[in-house]
Specification:
Radius of gyration: 17 Å
Structural class: mainly alpha
Mean pLDDT: 87
Shape: flat
Low-confidence stretches: none
Order of helices and strands: HH
Helix content: 25-40%
Oligomer: single chain
Number of strands: 0
Number of helices: 2
Largest sheet: none
Length: about 90
């Protein structure tokens, strides 16, 4: 999907220094944002004039293998729904 993405983050309970989900996502957004700015300035990428990231995120704690498999299938199949997405630029807004 060009307007959002999904991911699965595994935070090991065995680690003595496990970062929080907020810190992981904050670092990810910062790294991607900096790389994007570099791409705009150095590689002539198209600038993005709005916010690159939304302010928050949706999280779900996966508690079973079956739920994990369903989420994985959803993530894998999600891009095929882009043509019908209400935010797709080829769809007229109602």
């Amino acid at each position: 999907m060009p307007n959002h993405f999904h991911g699965i983050i595994y935070i090991s309970p065995d680690s003595s220094d496990s970062p929080t989900l907020g810190k992981i996502l904050g670092a990810f957004k910062s790294i991607v944002n900096n790389n994007y700015i570099t791409g705009v300035n150095v590689k002539n990428w198209q600038p993005f004039h709005k916010r690159l990231w939304q302010r928050n995120y949706y999280e779900h704690i996966v508690q079973s293998e079956i739920v994990l498999q369903k989420i994985q299938a959803y993530i894998q199949n999600n891009p095929s729904t882009w043509q019908a997405d209400s935010l797709h630029p080829d769809i007229e807004s109602k």
